Amino acid sequence: MNPLIPFNKPYLTGKEAHYIYQAVYSGKISGNGIYTKGCQRFFEERYGFKKTLLTTSCTDALEMAAILANIQPGDEVIVPSYTFVSTALAFVREGAKIVFADSCANNPNIDADKIEALITERTRVIVPVHYAGIACDMDKIMQLAEKYNLLVIEDAAQAIDSFYKGRALGAIGHMAAFSFHETKNIVSGEGGMLAINDDRFADRAEIIWEKGTNRAQFFRGEINKYGWVDTGSSFLPSEIVAAFLYAQLENLDDIQRKRKEIWGLYASGLAGLAEKGLITLTDIPDYATNNAHMFYIVCRDLDTRSKLIEHLKASNIHSVFHYLSLHKSDFYSARSGKTASLPNSDHYTDCLLRLPMYFELTHDNVRFITKEIVDFFNDPS
Ligand SMILES: *Cc1c(COP(=O)(O)O)cnc(C)c1O
């Protein structure tokens, strides 16, 4: 039997421990030091985000965004049902009512054509999630935001180094949240970042980040003492985390090139099954790029997917399904009584399957996995 092919394996560039050592022995290990600033500068210069703040997770960055959006109890926030819990939870903590939207028929992203019908006079924010790093239809979403005076907060957790009509994901909405969790393309164990593209939020973001104090301004010498000026929390990571992330960012091009190579190999190996209509592969609209965050297939039904997972497991290949529609979750249904019918979200809940995807996955591994999948569909017993 071949050794286990895990679903994910975090990649180390080799420099992480060195930079952590540097951070530790520099004597500055709390947050907002040279590695934090170095990472933030990297993102601002490379992707054109106006201001960035590292956070301890993408969940944290979303919570900061919800505070900055000044969400009040009863305000409504439109979120896709097919997403991670944090996309909704960050706003629920501020008292928001979540209004779930369905996915597109041909990909798991929020269906921009179905958003307008969900907007009421209480709506404040739309949260597009760029699933698998593939862009949502941002022009339509930004036009709606303008028409109804709403904020757009991109959940770009999976979307590093991906683009919409040439613009970096995370640079389009008023704010955006990224994740460096060990399952993402660029990792720091746990970690995240808030990108702020609307200047109105920039100064307050720094205060919320630093426990409601104006300490960041104090350290820059802009004021001569600092104190409690607003709400907030401890959202900033230590320099140890930032040092790890810095090593990853230095290797971003290499990591992306390798992941795209693996993605392409999967796509060609499975094209035949897709042509026969046995599975569906990722749809990449003309306006979007692929950052090879994830390789998924969509099976025709839940039963086929369950059997395929078992078939792959028998060959020591670990494949995993993904989100369970949030509008059907225990937490949400207990609080909201009636639930909408969101058939596309439910379809991805039942039928989407993610295949192993990580830097060290070899070409032989990918050929073996695709062969096992082809065999399964040729003889699905
Ligand atoms: C990973 C992920 C998150 C959460 O990221 P953390 O850094 O673990 O908090 C949120 N939203 C989406 C879409 C994700 O993929």
UniProtKB/TrEMBL annotation:
Gene3D superfamilies associated with the record: Aspartate Aminotransferase, domain 1, Type I PLP-dependent aspartate aminotransferase-like (Major domain)
Name recorded for this polypeptide: dTDP-4-amino-4,6-dideoxygalactose transaminase
Record's keyword terms, sorted: Aminotransferase, Pyridoxal phosphate, Transferase
GO molecular function, one term: dTDP-4-amino-4,6-dideoxygalactose transaminase activity
Matching Pfam families: DegT_DnrJ_EryC1 (PF01041)
Family membership noted in the UniProt record: Belongs to the DegT/DnrJ/EryC1 family.
EC number, UniProt record: 2.6.1.59
Domain of life: Bacteria
Source organism (scientific name): Chitinophaga chungangae
